[in-house]
Design brief:
mainly beta; seven-stranded mixed β-sheet; five-stranded mixed β-sheet; 2 helices; TAT_signal; Putative secreted protein
């Protein structure tokens, strides 16, 4: 088979996934394609990036709740205590591999995790439209029960932040708040092939903002405190 249509060809893989997503959004009446919020602004504007994307040059803030020691096991992800699970968005990043009965839900345990230390990004919008900075966290092998924790787990401890008008913003997993989780294109160390994001929970499409209280894709919101069992899938 020609390398032009081989699954190992990064350009082909990107075109295939981009085309599939384009068909999906076209069917829904949307016209915005899923472009990374971290691409250069000129490229983003040309590609039609959402106006809610983070301004270029904005500092990315480390909010890794696992690396900081705030979260040491998966049980704490559902804890509303300020020193543990309060204002935390958590989930797992996985590589979609052929599996009988495989499910693109956050509690499905049989896909391969992304390599430990993969950077995941998060951003959220408050009820008044204020857009947060972009936050980063790495994936970890977090001790925990099936469906929560384990390899590929990320957890963001979102800080309270103040906008230019002096208003404070606190993530509370409310339905009038929105968030997105994503992973930039990376390389699968096992194959050398490029990995790009295929789906997210919530939001479904890559880089899409989703309800802070979950959208029925497997997430679990502890309203007033945190959002658990989000997910990112790469292919």
């Amino acid at each position: 088979m020609s390398s032009r249509i081989s699954g190992s060809n990064p350009a082909w893989r990107r075109a295939l996934l981009g085309g599939s997503v384009a068909i999906a959004v076209a069917a829904s009446g949307a016209v915005v394609l899923p472009n990374s919020p971290l691409v250069p602004s000129a490229v983003a504007q040309e590609a039609g990036q959402s106006e809610n994307a983070a301004p270029q040059g904005r500092e990315i803030i480390d909010a890794d709740a696992i690396a900081s020691g705030a979260i040491t096991n998966a049980t704490q992800l559902s804890n509303a205590a300020e020193e543990q699970g309060a204002r935390v968005i958590s989930g797992r990043a996985q590589i979609v591999t052929p599996k009988g009965g495989g499910q693109l839900t956050p509690t499905y345990d049989s896909f391969e995790p992304v390599p430990e230390g993969t950077t995941v990004y998060a951003q959220w919008i408050d009820k008044d439209g204020a857009v947060s900075p972009v936050y980063s966290a790495e994936t970890h092998d977090l001790p925990g029960a099936a469906g929560s924790g384990g390899p590929g787990t990320y957890a963001f401890k979102l800080p309270v932040w103040t906008d230019a008008d002096g208003n404070e913003h606190r993530f509370l997993a409310h339905s009038n708040q929105r968030y997105r989780i994503w992973v930039e294109p990376t390389v699968n160390p096992a194959t050398g092939n490029e990995l790009v994001q295929l789906r997210a929970a919530g939001g479904y499409l890559p880089y899409t903002f989703a309800s802070g209280s979950g959208e029925g894709l497997g997430e679990f919101a502890l309203t007033g405190s945190n959002l658990q069992r989000t997910g990112v899938w790469l292919y």
